[in-house]
From TrEMBL:
Region (Disordered): 114-138
Protein name: 3'-phosphate/5'-hydroxy nucleic acid ligase
Naturally occurring in which organism (per UniProt): Telluria aromaticivorans
Family annotation (Gene3D superfamilies): tRNA-splicing ligase RtcB (3.90.1860.10)
Record carries keyword Glycoprotein: no
Length: 417
């Protein structure tokens, strides 16, 4: 397999950093983060960097981090198990209603989304409360069924860490959140209708990630470990905190996957309420994480592999690489490139912070950039404007040796919190 598309980042000792970033911008701060990460003594072989790379907490988003005998909780992050799900339907473009606002409204009613601070009325949602309008008031049976698959393991985790029980877990199952999370109705290159969504482990994953990041920092202080960045605090294999984290993070990833399944079921039901023509779903379906950690075998070793904003792309494996609001997305098939640890990017990747996007762009800019898409176009989503992201075509070209495109999707409806 060709690897002439790999760029090497100059580092002062430590492990190599291999980057699939030809033709896409990489901020200096991201390179600095990667250089610090490369110094960690338990890294294995090299760090793989995807073309959507940008600054994150602890390590860059868009990086693949193999470790032996340790894990960095901040590298996994607090949106544990965040990922994508897409399902192809038997509907065609001409089956969609002329009034796409009605379709968007039905999905908004079916899938709780956003937060109390986003300025949207709770009366338009299936839930209540000024604290978090993005949670259920009375969860439907599909949420109960999903929670039944999670409850016993969660009870065991909470037995050791009781403060985690206070998080909004059960009522967040099957909900979207805010930021770059979304539910979309898309058309592929042949006019087939897809339903696609992006979300993770919601409040409970955030609580688990935050708690163990702090425990790792405490361990570093206790053992007087000198770190290049405090967010690189790690948990050593063989310790109680390590074992408990691996258990908790595995559960949060399971929560995230079920969360997407529940949302997809409710979104499909919403589409059926608007489109009366009978149709099938899951003709082709993908459900993949892009913020997670798991044991994998690479270069002859069993390693703990952290994908922070990266998707598994084993040979023949399907994945999802979304663009931004107004940009196309891709269903891809992995090529199994060992140098990338069988990984690819998780999206386009930001080129500026949310604060900078809000400073630079206006609501009129957002309206122009999302022309033809039925979606929010108010000040609350300016930070998600397409111009705040890298060019998705350049990102895809940079990882041409990692994945092949199976379907190209263009959204016609987008729901954001």
């Amino acid at each position: 397999m060709k690897n002439d598309d790999i760029e090497l980042l100059a580092t002062k000792g430590g492990k190599p950093v291999k980057m699939w970033t030809q033709g896409v911008p990489v901020e200096a701060e991201a390179k600095e983060q990667l250089q610090k990460l490369a110094q960690m003594p338990f890294l294995f072989h090299h760090v793989a960097v995807m073309p959507d790379v940008h600054v994150g907490k602890g390590s860059t988003i868009g990086s693949v981090i193999p470790t032996l005998g340790a894990v960095i909780p901040a590298a996994v992050g607090v949106d544990i198990g965040c990922g994508m799900m897409a399902a192809k339907t038997t509907l065609r473009a001409n089956d969609l209603p002329d009034n796409l606002a009605k379709l968007r409204s039905a999905i908004e009613q079916a899938v709780p989304h956003g937060r109390a601070t986003n300025g949207m009325s709770p009366k338009t949602r299936n839930h209540k409360g000024s604290r978090d309008v993005g949670s259920w008031n009375n969860p439907p049976p599909v949420v109960d069924a999903g929670w039944a698959r999670l409850r016993a393991e969660f009870d065991e985790i909470c037995r050791k860490y009781p403060k985690l029980r206070g998080t909004n877990n059960y009522k967040h199952l099957g909900t979207l959140g805010s930021g770059n999370h979304f539910v979309e109705v898309c058309l592929d290159e042949e006019g087939a209708v897809w339903i696609m969504l992006h979300s993770g482990s919601r409040g409970v994953g955030n609580a688990i990630g935050t708690h163990f990041i702090e425990l790792a920092r405490q361990d570093m202080r206790r053992h007087q470990v000198n770190l290049p960045d405090q967010d690189l605090a790690y948990l050593e294999e063989g310790t109680q905190h390590y074992d408990d984290y691996v258990e908790a993070v595995g559960w949060a990833q399971k929560f995230a996957r079920i969360n997407r399944e529940v949302m997809m079921e409710n979104a499909i039901r919403a589409v059926r309420s608007v489109i009366t023509k009978p149709f099938e779903t899951h003709v082709e379906a993908v459900n993949c994480h892009h913020n997670y950690v798991q044991k994998e075998r690479h270069f002859g070793k069993d390693v703990l592999l952290t994908r922070k904003g990266a998707v598994s792309a084993r040979a023949g494996e399907l994945g999802i690489i979304p663009g931004s609001m107004g940009a196309k997305s891709f269903i891809v098939r992995g090529k199994g490139n060992p140098e990338s640890f069988n990984s690819c990017s998780h999206g386009a990747g930001r080129v500026m912070s949310r604060t900078e996007a809000k400073r630079r762009f206006t609501r009129l800019d957002a309206e122009r950039a999302t022309e033809g898409v039925e979606c929010r176009k108010d000040e609350g989503v300016i930070d998600e404007i397409p111009m705040a992201y890298k060019d998705i075509d350049a990102v895809m070209h940079a990882q041409r040796e990692l994945v092949e495109v199976v379907h190209t999707l263009k959204q016609v409806v987008c729901v954001k919190g």
